[in-house]
Prior knowledge:
Blueprint: H1 11-19, H2 28-48, H3 53-56, H4 72-86, E1 90-95, E2 102-103, H5 107-110, E3 114-122, E4 133-141, H6 152-155, E5 162-170, E6 174-180, E7 183-190, E8 195-200, E9 211-213, H7 224-235, E10 245-246, H8 252-262, E11 264-268, H9 281-294, E12 298-300, E13 320-323, H10 325-334
Helix pairs in contact: 1-2, 2-4
The structure holds 2,5-anhydro-1,6-di-O-phosphono-D-glucitol and manganese (II) ion (2 copies).
The site of one manganese (II) ion (MN) has 6 residues, from strand 3.
Amino acid sequence: MENISRKVLTLDEFTIQQLRNFPSATGELSGLLRDIGLAAKRVNVEVNKAGLVDILGDAGSTNVQGEDVKKLDVFANNQFMGALRHGISCAGIASEEMDDYIAFNDEVSKNSKYVCLFDPLDGSGNIDVNVSIGTIFGVYRRATTQGEIASSQDFLQPGRKQVAAGYIVYGSSTMLVYATRRGVNGFTLDPSIGEFCLSHPNIKCPEFGKIYSVNHGNFFRYSEGVRNYIDACQKKDKSNGGPYTQRYIGSMVSDVHRNLIKGGIFMYPGTTDKPGGKLRLLYECNPFAFIMEVAGGKATDGKQRILDIQPETLHQRTPLFIGSKGMMEELESHL
Ligand code: AHG
Ligand code: MN
Ligand code: MN
């Protein structure tokens, strides 16, 4: 007889099982996560054949089927937008690839509870060299009344108001990780059945790790405090928890995913020429800050908690320091 308790839960099964603990829940969040999972699977298929672009046609050209070949980040944007528009849980979206938010103007969407902000393809500079890339998303309960069309105040909420946040990493295997206030769980795509399966239940970020991740090329444009901390990382030895190792992929999703699992710190500080840093608050930093805090870690802009920043515009940037709690406290002592 089959041993049911050993069955691996799929993403859908998992979110539905979570609902059982909340008899009053409507299942809308499960629906939204299912929509995101579907878009992720479609993007995964395209990401996996990105190397074939040169023989099937470059972005901006026409492929062998006579269709326009879109850049992968535009393709990914359309997949996530389409899945959320057709689902019944999302009243509107905002994305790195679109200047303004889109409020879905049909009766079902206007009555939906959530809005979603995302970076459809993060690390897209790495696509053509076959290095891991990702998708990042944050979900908010809307601030406006259900039944009305969503508006900017739904999208400009501080990150602490997220009800869920997650990312997909298209790596040596494809994983979807998402957090609610109750925990962080990771699902690996099983290509044989086309489902995300629970592989990393209840992820916690180790309090200390050995990895620091930063773009060293910018070293002389960082503040003195940041430079001092990087020096301290390089001087670590057995006597004080080291030696540390430096790892920087250049895809935030992959870099922070690794540090979340293994323990570590990731930094994208402001520089003398770009004091606000590079990363976007709403759809890059807030989702990761939420996930990291639920997993026991910390995320700041060097002065305050990322999740407490009151956003003013959709695409605003912020410096980011994120990772293991103990390492973040070490960093803070230098800033
Ligand atoms: P995107 O591809 O969405 O524009 O984001 C790339 C980001 C992030 O993933 C990464 O950590 C960072 O850019 C790398 O920037 P540098 O090359 O300046 O280090
Ligand atoms: Mn990005
Ligand atoms: Mn992007």
